[in-house]
């Protein structure tokens, strides 16, 4: 049986692959769709962590690491929102720059922390009922309509600073 850590790490890889497909050829006809699918997966993944996985880990004493993860989720959510705005406006070049310059850096820093610190605790810190709820959600769960991560909008807007560092 796959551990919860393995299941969540596999989701990280799938999300990364979708982002990489977009970045490999952002002007390709299917590139924005690949990125939107990756973003849907990332938003769903953030939901399952914030609503199912993290509360019992926080109760088990992982308050500091979870606060860091929540703050980083907010930053990622805000970047995704800005990228989606750029794509809707037809500005694929700026969207790709923002993904390449900001989102990939956030994920490269964020995912290893979850994978090394929090995920190994899931199979032991979560009660069997919570483990099963997490497994079921990983297998077939959907992001509830209108759900937004706890820290979305709490960081400076992604568009305030262009990936190259100049103010917009």
Describe what this molecule looks like in 3D.
With about 170 residues, the protein is mainly α. The protein is globular. The termini are far apart. The protein has one domain. The chain is about 70% helix and about 0% strand.
Structure described in brief:
The protein has six helices and no strands. It is mainly α and 168 residues long.
Q: Layout of helices and strands, plus pairs?
A:
Elements: H1 4-24, H2 31-59, H3 63-88, H4 92-118, H5 122-125, H6 128-140
Question: Which short descriptors sum up this protein?
Answer:
168 residues; mainly alpha; 6 helices; 71% helix; globular; disordered C terminus; Hemerythrin-like; Hemerythrin HHE cation binding domain protein
Distance between the termini: 49 Å
- Beta-strand proportion: under 5%
Instruction: Return Rg in Å.
Output: 16 Å
Instruction: Using the alpha-carbon principal axes, give the shape.
Output: globular
Number of helices: 6
Number of domains: 1
Determine the structural class based on helices, strands and strand pairing: mainly alpha
Mean pLDDT: 91
Q: How many E strands? A: 0
| Order of helix and strand elements from N to C terminus | HHHHHH
Pfam family, one: Hemerythrin
Protein name: Hemerythrin HHE cation binding domain protein
InterPro entries: Hemerythrin-like (IPR012312)
Organism: Acidothermus cellulolyticus (strain ATCC 43068 / DSM 8971 / 11B)
């Amino acid at each position: 049986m796959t551990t919860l850590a393995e299941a969540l790490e596999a989701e990280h890889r799938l999300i990364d692959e979708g982002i990489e497909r977009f970045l490999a050829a952002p002007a390709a006809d299917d590139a924005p769709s690949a990125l939107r699918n990756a973003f849907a997966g990332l938003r769903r993944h953030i939901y399952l962590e914030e609503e199912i996985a993290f509360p019992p880990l926080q109760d088990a004493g992982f308050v500091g690491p979870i606060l860091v993860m929540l703050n980083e989720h907010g930053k990622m959510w805000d970047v995704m929102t800005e990228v989606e705005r750029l794509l809707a406006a037809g500005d694929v070049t700026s969207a790709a720059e923002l993904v390449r310059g900001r989102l990939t850096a956030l994920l490269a820093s964020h995912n290893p922390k979850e994978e090394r610190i929090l995920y190994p605790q899931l199979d032991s810190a979560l009660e069997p009922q919570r483990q099963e709820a997490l497994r079921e959600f990983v297998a077939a769960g959907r992001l509830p309509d209108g759900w937004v991560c706890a820290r979305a909008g709490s960081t400076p807007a992604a568009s305030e600073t262009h990936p190259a560092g100049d103010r917009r």
